[in-house]
Fold:
Amino acid sequence: MPSVTLRINNIACRYETANVLENINFSADEGDFIGIIGPNASGKSTLLKSISKTLKPHTGTVFLDERDVYTLKGIEVAKKLAVVPQESIISFAFTALEIVLMGRIPHLNRFEMESTKDLAIAKKAMQLTNSWYLRERPINQLSGGEKQRVIIARALTQEPKVLLLDEPTGHLDINHEIEILDLIKKLNKEERVVVIAIFHNLNIASQYCEKLILLNKGKIFTAGRADDVLTQKNIEKVYGIKVRVKRDELSGKLLIHPQRKRIVKATKGRVHIVAGSGTAISLMNELVDNGYDVSLGVINIGDSDYVAAKTLGLDILEEKPFSPIARENYEKNLKLIKQAEYVILTNIPIGFANIKNLEAIKQAKNLIIIEKEPIEKRDYTKGEATKLYYELKAGALVVKNSHAALEVLKKRSEVL
Amino acid sequence: MYKNYLKKIFHWKLIITYLTATLGLTIILALTFGAAHISPFTVFKILLAKLPLIKNLITPSWSIGEATIILQIRLPRIILGVLVGAALGVAGTTMQGLFKNPMADPYIIGISSGAALGAVFTIAFGLSIFGMYTIPLMAFAGATAAIFLVYNIASVRRKLPVSTLLLAGIAVTLFLSAIISLMMYTSGEELHGIVFWLMGGLWGRNWNHVLMAFPFIFLGTIIIYIFARDLNVMLLGEEPAQHLGIEVETLKKIILLSASLITAAAVSVSGIIGFVGLIIPHAMRILVGPDHRILLPSSALVGGIFLVWADTLARTIIAPIELPVGIITALFGAPFFIYLLRTRKRAMF
Structure:
């Protein structure tokens, strides 16, 4: 077997009688950036603890440079392996520099004071993590982001070959999160440090890790290249939610979108929407979140409004793709419109395929029109639609966007 | 930057030198206080005359009585004060660091109640197997028994969770205190003696008491100091400390046992002197910072200085009646500590 920096050989961990980890095998070598993902209680932290010699596995071995970490002295492990916890609670007034210098302890004899070399290493680490300016500040007065940068500097001061991170940015703002992860990525690439990190956020894991280990109920569900692990099937199976996986146009990395379901019960009146080309996505979501019973129609299958409505589980009147509205659907639409307390027409282009929707709207009890552009610009019926539209507009309330439409509905229901 | 760092080291050395000098001066000045008036100069000469080499150069200008008062009565008591004060300072600092709890003091894991039970038992039943040393020996036995008990209650599968340790300490303290109260309630004439011992004091102590306490306090302090840097790291939490290569469970046991033995030795010769072990570490943390490499020695020195002055006050303030020193430590120490709290910005915890 070729020599690798870190090799996890068939480990299993148990708390009392419950198995927390089983059959875990993987290895990591110089320059690897491995993300550990999985739902809560899937064993992520336990895995990290068994690697860092904190929690001895019941069976199996962790090899660091081909030596069993559980036979090594703590100090030998600390020379090669550093850990960044999710959060550090330090209630004593050590300065940031004093905290970072503690990273040199594994390299010093018991009574040896830190030398110029140790200070230089600490300084470099603090400059890398953009925390050098904090050096004289007491650690307990720093913000979460500042403190985490200091803690990472301490880990780097250990000059480790392996860096373990347990959700290193769980408590940070997005700007600090990116700053810290970029830094870790840089160390990983330039200094060839092995990085093994737990991530809750799948999109962050996707952005930074080449390899991923997806844990489920204490076992490796799947592991490998991020592209192979982050599939819709894998995520839906392990996390038990509907997701959509897309490729980010800029980074080429995968992006995971959870799919929304209705979470608020429909207690308010029926609102019928006439839309298309994604003009009603946010409107439908907002209406649903505010407890309205929403229907959509007539809409072509595959339209982005159609997809969104389907996800939300709305009543939909559907028409085959690229087909004009059939007679039968027109009738059904008319029925829905008559039933609805409100009808909302979004800012859609009107052509011969969907002009029948405008005709049907004439029957609406209360009509709200969302108008962003004048109808003339989006009339593809040589004026027929424009004529119809002005008729409708005379008896309707016109608003500028979907948010305003929602406000109108809210105000009306207050009056009622 | 390295200059700043060297400055810190120099600063530390300065603090230790200054405190050591203050301690020396304290001892000499404290020796002059008492019913018989003896000048500082004479005191100094009496002390010098005991030193090898120099003693031939000094012509005695004092009576044998004066020498006896200084060397056999005042000096052992003052040295014991230094020892006990230093012990409480070191043990208090250690316990606060180990438990990461500002309320921790040397007695936190039941050592005082164990010692008290031993002492109260001896007084109440008028035991005198070892003559005047029966009380300290029994107190020491009680203290070590309490440590043993708490330690065994708290250890789970060879690990020692500090929160369990803390609770076990409280439980044992409450239980032993109940027994002590029962004994006091039924003791009758001996009550005064018991109360006096419980309040803590250094009266009537001689060189033998010093010799009894010294080995434990000296060795314990040395051992704890060896692990001063590890104690710093422990303040980050047990897991981070382990990740920096500290063998946490072993360290906790060594540190806890050392601090306990130091405390047991101090309590057995002085009774339960409160306040010093709680407040001196806090005050020093405010003044010199949280690094145990400077905090431990300065807490020891200031603990010693403070207790010697408190004891001097206790024996002179309404002479010839002596007050229990525990009353003085709290009466004068607390306002000073409040002053420090209000004026210093550096947070202690």
Observations:
- The two ends of chain A are 77 Å apart (CA to CA).
- The first strand of chain A starts at residue 6 and ends at 15.
- Chain A has a mean pLDDT of 88.
